Amino acid sequence: MTLPESKDFSYLFSDETNARKPSPLKTCIHLFNDPNIIFLGGGLPLSDYFPWTQVTSKSPLPPFNKGIGAKLSDSETDTLTYTVERDSKAEDFDIPFSKSLQYGFTQGHPDLLNFLKEHTGLIHKMNYSDWDIILTTGNTNGWESTLRVFCNKGDVILAEAHSFSSSLASAEAQGITTFPIPIDEHGIIPEKLEEILDNWTPGAPKPKLLYTIPTGQNPTGTSLADERKVEIYRIACKHDFLIIEDEPYYFLQMGEYIADLDERKKVQDVPKPTHDQFLGSLAKTFLSVDTEGRVIRMDSFSKVLAPGSRLGWLTGSKKLLQPYISLHEMTVQAASGFTQSLVNGLLQRWGQDGYIDWLIGLRHEYTLKRDNAIDALYEYAPKHEAFKINPPIAGMFFTINIDASIHPEFETKFQSNPAMVEQYIYDKVVRSGVLVVPGAWFRTEGETNPPQPKESKQGGNANEIFFRGTYAAVSPEKLREGLKRLGDALHEEFQIAK
Amino acid sequence: MTLPESKDFSYLFSDETNARKPSPLKTCIHLFNDPNIIFLGGGLPLSDYFPWTQVTSKSPLPPFNKGIGAKLSDSETDTLTYTVERDSKAEDFDIPFSKSLQYGFTQGHPDLLNFLKEHTGLIHKMNYSDWDIILTTGNTNGWESTLRVFCNKGDVILAEAHSFSSSLASAEAQGITTFPIPIDEHGIIPEKLEEILDNWTPGAPKPKLLYTIPTGQNPTGTSLADERKVEIYRIACKHDFLIIEDEPYYFLQMGEYIADLDERKKVQDVPKPTHDQFLGSLAKTFLSVDTEGRVIRMDSFSKVLAPGSRLGWLTGSKKLLQPYISLHEMTVQAASGFTQSLVNGLLQRWGQDGYIDWLIGLRHEYTLKRDNAIDALYEYAPKHEAFKINPPIAGMFFTINIDASIHPEFETKFQSNPAMVEQYIYDKVVRSGVLVVPGAWFRTEGETNPPQPKESKQGGNANEIFFRGTYAAVSPEKLREGLKRLGDALHEEFQIAK
Q1: pLDDT recorded at residue A456
Q2: CA–CA separation, B100 vs A308, rounded Å?
Q3: Which of A195, A421, B243, B438 could form a disulfide with A404 if both were Cys (CB 3.0 to 4.6 A apart)?
């Protein structure tokens, strides 16, 4: 079956993208590898002067039967030792440092791109032909570039009513207004989204894009239901905006929390899934729904391999990715060559199957962490209807919602202002020796510029506040202790007996 | 002696900088290392899941007596083998991957910052107290960030009349006008700069900054004379603009080209300089002239260690660097952790002295390359007054100026248009099997918005064109062959007998 080509959305490009001229130096760079040309065109140092002739890494070896975090025995059963040379290749797929530490390849080194493109095709069944990927230095970079590529000062974008504060702040600094979309425990509510857009003030600038974190959303921990993605995509076509799916937590899909330990054990005792079972269990993606090429997906190694790798990739239509490449030539230039050589060396040796093994192992670890956290929350948090624990099915975050109005001093000390309760509890909890962060830090603001939706954007109790915690960063023991401190502080503050 | 503090130039910040709110998450990040706090605040994965437990590098060992590009014998005399661990430190100064591959440290890892700050203090005698450095992912990133930090759409900046095309294009895309400053063989002409600014149209936006590549300028290969730096700094204070010195080629200061081989041999036979001699021989820098904190210097490892390291640093007053950190939190986040651990591991083991040895070795290599290139140019280029060879004293580039009007078909085929000759020669030279790039690619444009300076910005023959070549990228033999092809093509095209 021949897939259709993507549509042309270049009319959504920013003034900056339209004003960006291709560097004339890039018009001759293809001659660098022409054997008939002696290239005196660019200031490329000889690789003889790169002071790393060989780098050898020790890494875990698939299928990671003892767990992805298990201590390596240094034996052939669990330890992979691989070497990247400066001047030669141990394997055909290696990127020697003479290449990776040289200029060039803003899109990414071909060998690494090939691996990631194959992986991407495996996960998302693409519905148009001219899709591609480019490397980023992580989703922070990918998002900031997205704003530069598409948005002008004064433009409007859409985002979940609570969203990642750094992403929101990046838009705000650029003078872009973010309009919050109501969410519930399954993410964006398509009906609300459509209503907002159907009733958009005529003549007001319409949103160019929707920024969403569909899986294990930050900060709410919610995951967008599959059928909602189809609906939201339909609305995107109807109202002509792009969808930017920011998916750092995509592979941390732990599934439903099972409170009953016997039931949970039954699920845990099921043997490790096959690769087909694992791939089949993953949530639908906007990318896989996209027929027109109006979705740009941001994947990152930050949560899957290591944040400091500063490596991720964008997937979308070639037409939409081209201006990112032109922008990146003038910003990041390329992801670090050390990173590219070492990540490529590892992934290629693991193979697509080994990488899936890794992702299965990662999901397993986070399932244990999530269960441990939610068990402890149910154990230690006040057992009172004003406290609502939200067990996530994906990602790194749990939330606890609190009806601030039940605070004994709500009307007096806090003047019936839930935000004041929130800040007060945050400070108290920190003094108790545990840090969870207030939901208010993630509120999507800027809704004053476009027309207001008629209903509250929270869609719920106006006195409800929430706190976000993570089970990613500490050991199970510390996590339990932290949540006990949290529970104790809440009991005390709200004067609820244990 | 107590040094004074820098002045406050925050009134030069861009709207974007002023609108950028600090991320609330950053207000609690200091609690991450507080032993009394269980930190459930951020989505930081456990380092147990970083799949690199140990990375071992082979590198050259100071003092590099056989040359910095010499093949390593794998013996203790010339080979340094060092290991960075994930979970421990071989040396106190090492940055284990558990730290470098984790989130955090947008400014850079403290150990690496310490080394670079010490190095920077050694090279530039700073005249104010509150200076600091921050890491970048190279000067491309540093420059783009500079534009974002200081400039709004419609602002004006100054640059050499020919400058690095990518830097100019970056400004242009952002809607910033670059005003070209006349240059000669010693760089920017201070008198011209002052005249332009003294006669600036009243009410027109005044330039916020001067972008300059003082050493081995790209594309002209010229180096800004020391005494001119003092003058230009005085003018910067008078007309209140910042100076951004982009110095990737700073350590490639080969000194004057000596055509006479006997004379040259005398210089070559002088023993390797002491470190004090080397440091004393380096050009004055704007940073070392700066008393107010109005200079930001961009250093890069691209030409000194390897371009693909994507690592550099900015030096300037803390007040001016702070908004870069806030911007980088939303763009690059941090330089790659692999890069930081490996570069730090190498530099710390080399020590400040070993690194100076490396820079001395690098300068030696480029001196040989430069001499080889200029020798060949004098040998092969037409010996005719219309062809002017410009031997550089620093950097990677040579230029050859040509009076296009002596072309036999200048008035007929080329309609007395030197630009047409330039393009034609470029194409012909490429067909002859060598690539040098036309000076026109680097012309600083955008001078139509502010008032025109009265004299030609080139200050010379309006029919003069030039080509830029580099001796960095190929072996000496290939370079000679390339320059022979260039010379042959020019002889033929201009119908000059050999």
Answers
A1: 37
A2: 6
A3: A421
All residues at 6 or more sequence positions from A228 whose CB lies less than 8 Å from its CB, including other chains:
A186, A187, A188, A189, A190
Return d(Cα B300, Cα B148) in angstroms, integer: 19
Q: Quick check: B166 and A137 CB within 8 A?
A: no
Task: Find which of A16, A20, A38 to mutate to test the B interface (most B CBs within 10 Å of its CB).
Answer: A38
Distance from CA of A18 to the nearest CA of B (A): 8
Cβ distance B15 to A51 less than 8 Å, yes or no, reads no
CATH superfamily of the domain spanning B381-493: Aspartate Aminotransferase, domain 1 (3.90.1150.10)
Q: What integer best gives the mean pLDDT of chain B?
A: 94
CA B401/CA B393 separation, integer angstroms: 17
Name the β-bridge partners of A374: none
Answer whether B170 sits within 8 Å of A342, measured CB to CB.
no
Residue-level pLDDT at B380: 98
Is B344:B115 a contact under the CB 8 Å cutoff?
yes
A60 touches chain B (CB under 8 A): yes
CA-closest candidate to residue A142, choices A129, A133, A154: A133
C-alpha count within 13 angstroms, C-beta hemisphere, residue A289 = 24
Q: Give helix B110-123 / helix B337-380 axis angle, nearest 10°.
A: 40
B82 near A CB under 8 A: no
Angstroms from B141 CA to nearest CA on chain A? 5
Question: Does the beta-carbon distance from B59 to A52 stay under 8 Å?
Answer: yes
Q: Which CATH architecture has domain B10-43+124-250+285-335?
A: 3-Layer(aba) Sandwich (3.40)
Half-sphere exposure for B187 (CA within 13 Å, toward CB) = 24
Assign B389 to helix, strand or coil.
Answer: strand
pLDDT beyond 50 at A451: no
Residues 6+ apart with CB under 8 A from A127: A3, A4, A288, A289, A290, A291
* Distance separating alpha carbons of residues B101 and B86, to the nearest angstrom: 9
> What's the pLDDT at B371?
98
For residue A24, give the nearest of B42, B308, B441 by CB distance: B441
Residue A288 phi, psi (nearest 5): -80, -15
For B360-377, the pLDDT digits (tens) are 999 999 999 999 999 999
Domain range summary for chain B, segments of one domain joined by +: 10-43+124-250+285-335, 381-493
Query: Is the separation of the CB atoms in A239 and A208 below 8 Å?
Result: no
**Record: contact B342-A55, CB cut-off 8 A:** yes
Provide the pLDDT confidence category of residue B460 given band limits of 50, 70 and 90: low
Minimum CA–CA partner of B149 in chain A: A173
**Which two tokens mark A16?**
């900056």
Judged by DSSP in three states, B78 sits in coil
Chosen CATH of A10-44+124-250+285-335 out of 2.130.10.10, 3.40.640.10, 3.90.1150.30, 3.30.450.40: 3.40.640.10
B positions 376-435 inside 8 Å of A (CB): 396-397, 430, 433-435
Find the CB nearest B305 among A51, A53, A479: A51
Does any CB of chain A come closer than 8 Å to the CB of residue B25? yes
- pLDDT tens track for B102-153: 998 999 999 999 999 999 999 999 999 999 999 999 999 999 999 999 999 9
